[in-house]
Amino acid sequence: MTAQQQATLKKLGPLLALVAVCIGLALMSPNFLSVSNSFDVMRQVSINAVIAFGMTLSILLGGIDLSVGSILAVSSVLAAMTMKGGHGAGLAALIAILAGAGMGSLNGVVIAKGNVAPFIATLGMMTLLRGAALVLSNGSPISGFSSDLFAMLGGGYVAHLIPVPVVLMLAMFALFWFVLKRTVFGRHVYATGGNAEAARLSGVNTDRVQILVYTISGAMAALAGMILTSRLDSAQPTAGAGYELDAITAVVLGGTSLAGGRGWIFGTLVGALLIGVLNNGLNLMGVSSFYQQVVKGSVILLAVLLDRGGKA
Amino acid sequence: MKVTMKGVSKSFGPVRVLDGVDFSVAGGEIHALMGENGAGKSTLMKILCGAYQADGGGILIDGEAVAIRSTREAEALGIAIIHQELNMIPQLSVMDNLFLGREPNRCGVMERGRMRGESASWLGKVGAGQIDVNRAAETLSIGLQQLVEIAKALSLNARVLIMDEPTASLTDREIGRLFEIMKDLKSRGVGIVYVSHRMEEIFRICDKVSVLRDGHFVGERVVAQTGFDELVKMMVGRELKERFPKREASLGPVRLKVEDLADQGHIAGIHFEVRGGEVLGIAGLIGAGRSRVLNTLFGINRRTSGEVLLDGRRLSIKSPADAIAAGLGFVTEDRKSQGLVLGLSLRENVTLVHLGKYARLGIVNRKEESAAVKELMDELQIRARDAELEVKALSGGNQQKVVFAKWLAEPPKALLLDEPTRGVDVGGKAEIYHTINRLAAAGTAIVMVSSELPEVLAMSDRILVMREGRQAAILDARTATQEQVMTAASEGLRAA
Fold first, then answer.
1. Residues 6 or more apart in contact with residue A120 via CB below 8 angstroms
2. Nearest-by-Cβ selection for B343 from A187, A204, A261
3. Mutation test of the interface with chain B: which of A202, A208, A212, choosing the one with the most B Cβ atoms within 10 A?
4. Which residues of A touch B324 (CB under 8 A)?
5. Could you tell me which residues come within 8 angstroms of residue B289 by beta carbon, excluding any fewer than 6 positions away?
6. What residue segments make up the domains of chain A, in order of their start?
7. A201 touching B, CB under 8 A?
8. Rounded-to-integer distance, Cα A273 and Cα A251, Å
9. b/e per residue B115-127 (b: at least 16 CB within 10 A)
10. B87-101 residues labelled b (16+ CB within 10 A) or e (exposed)
11. For chain B, what is the largest distance between any 2 Cα atoms, rounded to a whole number of angstroms?
């Protein structure tokens, strides 16, 4: 086996793990592979997957975005306030996503221009924006939007079969795949994450790449916030807490290196699905939620250890 | 104690760095080890102190063969090294550094009192008794840190002390004090191997000198019986013309014009012109500011004064991106940290600079990109199974060709080269020289920094010699000799 074939096989490792877990669950719980349950799983996964796509970019840069959960909350509250103010769902979603992008770009500017470590910059932003969400909403949920269009976002179906969030997730996946694979910007993300100095000396505007990446990450968090808010028919200022860790888990399970420069968006989709499938399967099997955490944590450690073993 | 290395050889991959080298140092002598960059001095010393293992040959101590498989074993035999980059943990205190890894302790609890007393007494032996052993190492000057390292070596009971360019970052006063301590150690029977480029220091402090060239042992001399000229000849004297491809220079009009260039304190008063088709070599000792000139031209360092003109147009370069837009290219010195993104493929590295050429609306046309990469691979004779291979997997020579290829997708008006053949084997070097000549023939103005004098002499039309951040001379490469360049590069230093 050549080095390249080995590398390809390793890249497909997460997918093999996903298939293995699916087969195992299907054997133990016949209902698992039904069409409706499959789409249920994917719908549950969609919010985390959308955030994780954005997170993949920041991790590819060798950074991290801890503020996504808080950005999600602020965006949700802003969208809810817009709709409560009598405006349409379209405008509300637009405002929310622009706001998410704006908050993300702030992260990017602090990191790129202020030379602050991404962990610290986004940690600060995480706390700051959580406070902002509470201030804006006065600390209480905003519910009841009476907009069919907005309700579609989280609860609707395309062709009476495929949930809208799943369509959104797959569309975002395709878009990210294309951007990373085929565009100049995508190439610059890999180059900056792999060796920022060499990229800069090759004329890559690494500051701009960083700012754009965090902007996109913020926008994706806001999009996830729209799905969540629509499904709950309520914007919660405390929503999204801890989501950053789920997203990071999906990215890392997918094989993207925390050191930057190496990884792919397909892996992230697989990683998010793997987490979702485990949740769903353990529920179907009636495993207590206490044990579910033990199992999930073990899977994460095992996956990362296997990945390490491949490197040595 | 007398340490003798006999017929030592060492290869890294296909590159033979040392070939049957003999070297010996006796107690009570200061023995200089000299040679050009890449001659193999550091490798030889790393073998002596156990950091590398030799492929062939052996080491004898007082006539008895010994095996040195690690720095621990070397220390046990009484051999210690003081690296140019000092090996201290900056946040830890002086005494913690002195005893790092062998802290006196009782059941894991350090005996601070004993450490304090012993470190103070060792420091006293190197004339540094005034240092407060509780101070963090980073708060000491480089000179004092070095004394701490020497004290540490003595505390390890070192009988042979290797010092690698110990004066590189010391002030004159610190150098004077260091020499006093070296003399004192010598009088107490310690043997010192002194690796340095500075001729004047060799004559001032050393008893014997051994010279390496291209991984071979050239000879050993008693310092009192040799001179500046003989040593220079031993280091650089060789017939090399055939190693460099012939070139017919046809010079065009002036393309790159640099007037009174200066940065924040490292270089000043740099002034030169390069014509289309011309190669201007920049020579000088390490730290003379050669790379600084290129970095400043390329917008990596801030230019504080002076003008840069390209084809008569005044450039305002604030970043590498500006420089590239103006038509400059830069083959950087360190290809691993500055030249390549090691985890990306050959293709992705080659097109990093001019990716926009193969893209419309930000979307890369993979067919065009791959075709262009293939063309450049053929042109530069890059040998790789295919362009999707990670550059990490390529040999040094092929990696360096990839760095060149980055800049050739869109031929630059002026190309800056910093050590363009470092770590490249002889065959790969010749191919890179061909590429340089071809670029020059196509009308590119080339500025080349190199520490290899034969390379500078053979490849350049004119040679700018740097000395301590200033331009010491511009010589005509057709008539210049290595001795002239060396003299211009070190003359002031020799007298200082």
1. none
2. A261
3. A202
4. 202-203
5. B266, B267, B466, B468, B469, B470
6. 45-263
7. yes
8. 11
9. beebbbebbebbe
10. ebeeeebbbbbbbee
11. 77
Interface A-B, measured as beta-carbon pairs within 8 A, has a size of 78
CATH number of B2-236: 3.40.50.300
- Best B341, B388, B407, B408 member to test A by mutation, with max A CBs in 10 Å, is B341
In one-letter notation, the amino acid at residue A44 is Q
**Rounded distance between C-alpha atoms, residue B417 and residue B264, angstroms:** 22
Q: Does B15 touch chain A (CB under 8 A)?
A: no
The chain B residue lying nearest A257, using CA atoms, is B343
Q: Which of B300, B355, B393 sits opposite A187 (nearest CB)?
A: B355
Could you name the CATH architecture of B241-495?
3-Layer(aba) Sandwich (3.40)
- Domain ranges across chain B: 2-236, 241-495
Which two tokens mark B258?
Answer: 């640099």
* The two structure tokens encoding residue A24: 């195992």
pTM over 0.80: no
For every residue of B43-59, DSSP letters joined together read: HHHHHHTTSS--SEEEE
For chain A of 312 residues, list the mean pLDDT of each consecutive stretch of 10: 62 84 86 87 95 97 97 97 92 97 98 96 97 95 88 89 95 96 94 94 94 98 96 94 93 90 93 91 87 87 70 40
Whether residue B68 contacts residue B74, with contact meaning beta carbons closer than 8 Å, is answered with yes
ipTM of the complex: 0.82
Closest chain A residue to the Cα of B295, Cα to Cα: A201
